[in-house]
Amino acid sequence: MRAIWSDTREAIPDVRVRAEGIHFQKVGTAQDVWAPFMEALDYPKYHESTLSPDVPNFEARKDKVIYEHCHDQPEVRFCLDGAGVFEIRSTDDRFMHCTVESGDLLIIPARRYHRFLLTEEKPYIRHLLFSKARGADGQVVPHYRNGGPKGETKPAKSRYEEYTRYDELLALLPPREKRVTRDELLFFVPHLTTALWLEVLFDDVSRAVALIDEDRVLEAGDLFARAAAVEKLLTAELEINEKIPPSEFAEMRHNSYAGSGGDSPGFRRLMSLGDVIRPSLERLWARRGVEPVAVLREPSKHYDLHLLLRGIYELDGWIRSWCYMHHRLSERHLGPGAVSRKGRPVGALLERVQVSLVPELWGEITRFTSMMTEEADRARAAGCPFHVAPKEESHGVR
Prior knowledge:
Jelly Rolls; two-stranded antiparallel sheet; 14 helices; 48% helix; elongated
């Protein structure tokens, strides 16, 4: 097989073609293809196909493959005779012009866009197509990218759109004609993106916990700090919803939004995150033979533990700030004296602000403060010049 870039006509090294996930090699016979490749890949079906201007329905058959398309399974072709050109999209969205000849085996990855052309010198090819499943006409089912033989008019998708599943994501949003109010999109999007960002946060925390048990504490601290940055972003995102007028929110609340943020699976999982973090911390303190208060007292001596604690404190703090923003948002939309659909007063949301992921870590700060105060008091009592009792403030008028 020979491969060149369609736009520049420059040769493509074999290593680059293979890096794109495209398999190719010279094979002796069809049996040589079947035994080592098809049985291993579990491809039970194949059929022989000939394409040339002399075959019946040539134009219709040519149109099925000349338009850019992909398949849900890898496309496996073995050229028995003649030649043909597969133009295959690279991962950076360029066409690779791949010419196959007699004895060439080519495997194109699943869901990789490509098209097929006959060569100008010899417009004829006879080849085998192997597949796991085929359509009613005996062909592997194509999904066209930009138009097709029946005149479909779909806009071409970039690799970015394909990777991010952009169309599927936008399809989750309520269509304009079904929105209860003009601001329903402003309410819907932050909740949708929150669910996605929380998955990032949970993944970071899960990895951080595993790293703690591997004693890779610096890396764990970095992941906790990153999770805290995610929570900070979500807190700022909630401020946008304060821009929704109470009248618009009331319309949504009574006609479309029938849920409660507390029912969100992500919210419930976030509130129980301390149970995920705590066991690994307990094992860490026992393994290192140190208490958190010692880290608070001498951070430079236990610097990796200091950064770990700082990341957890930041995450914990931003989660509580996020909970407070929910309270503030409810006050803004419903009023401080209102009750939720479950009969809970808006003020009850403040209870969440008082709940920490790992309360004992905050208790260690209180313990550290008490220790430092006691030491300062003892030093002052002993007459230490560096611990002088503070002067009483004078509030008189001179």
